[in-house]
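[Q] Does anyone have a clean structure-token version of this?
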Amino acid sequence: MEAVAKKIENPRVRIAPSPTGLLHIGTARTALFNYLFAKKYNGSFILRIEDTDEERSQKEYEEDILEGLKWLKIFWDEGINPDDPKEYIGNFGPYRQSERIDIYESYIRKMLEEGTAYYCFCSKDDLEAQRQYQMSIGQAPKYSGKCSNLSKETAEQYLKEGRPAVIRFRTPAQNVVFQDLIKGKIEFNGALLGDITIAKDPKIPLYNLAAVIDDYEMKISYVIRGEDHLPNTPKQILLQEALGLPQPDYAHLPLILGSDKSKLSKRHGSVSVNEYREKGYLPEAMINFMAFLGWNPDTDREIYVINHLMEEFSLEHCQKSSAIFNIQKLDWINGFYIRNKSPKKLMELCVPYLISANLIQPIFETGGHLAGIGGVEIGEIYLMPETKEKIDPIALENIIALYQERLKYLSELPELVDFFFKKELDYPPDLLSWKEMTKPDIKGAIEALEGVIEAIKPNDWARSNLEEILVKKAAETGPEGDKGYLLWPFRVALSGKKSSAPPFAIAEILGKEKTLLRLKQAKGKLQ
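[A] Here you go.
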């Protein structure tokens, strides 16, 4: 596209979320694309909080937005100081709209004086009746302009009387044409807009006017945002022209839809970014996944770390059609990054989930500690509350490593490994049976296992030896060499689960004494 081909140098881009809800995938994706664009072209990425909606804006939502972006490592160059939210970084603040009221007021009063804006005293009931009438005769609903010709004196008199009012922009009835950097040439018929509301009063601007003023004052050169903002663009361009302000370049990212092509919602797996964090998705996996929600590098490659994305990202490769949110794809990408963690790092990431499930408790024998995920401390050693035994980080690493290949997200781990930390297991009915095995068959299999394991010397207690000895015994014991006759009860006796890591690996970690105890407990459940 011609507009994209121009040389891009030191762009200034922004993300401007409203603190009226939690940080969701759509906003995070927009933040990522702005961040990548800024980094690729040696520009600046600005975080601006649009909190003029006093009724809906809440501090907790602002905190959620900041924490979510920081967790994703999408760091802004200007905006709220991430280390002290009471302060700002950058030379174009304040970066909260609620602290920019004086700036907005000067623009609004100028528009009122110049006649490009006027007070409107129409009631909500009148406006609704007008809207319904226009729709009934097949017209697109827009403001009729009823108050546009009120004299200045009349407007001032109405204000003195306390009549409710808003401020409208005297919208020019002209076509608006601009080159979208993703969608190409866009043309709107300005005559269909009507005189739009731009402020509740001189101190409270509405979105379109505040965005135009802030983008100019903060020297934003590229506005990269979701396609849902496309209807706002002609309004903002007309406001820029009325105020004599330069027009930034616009790029509208495709919508993110669910797998059924409907609006993205929780039923498609879309939740807040911090909910993904709590569930055990990794930030690098989220970044990789979000990059493909509307961007296609025209290769078969699916794994991109952030540095590669900075190098390869471009608006030319952003797609025009809607992006599809696929939770299975996110699980696959997250599993990839989990598999590529070192055992030590994965252990540190997983410990908070084991602590939360009350499977372990950190203890500090020398008084020191390491900072864990979400403020949870990583101990020097751990206590297993149910067994009252201690377990060291190396043993935890070994337990977690058994399931590293099958984890989709970290919160799955406690349910998979809980049997390692329990004093006694619960066995659902018939769980120990393999195919048509009877209780006497199962008891015989367990007794055979006990005999073989009793004979294994402590020095030979290693996974490879256990597997060699027990597979051989299983082939000799099972009818027609059916190894499951012996190995299935062994797996279930050790884990209490239908599926688990290989029983030899479990036995190696449990040790000989605990392995024999589990077999004894399982046999007791058959009584």
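[Q] Thanks! Anything notable?
[A] Residues 368-375 have pLDDT under 50 and may be disordered.
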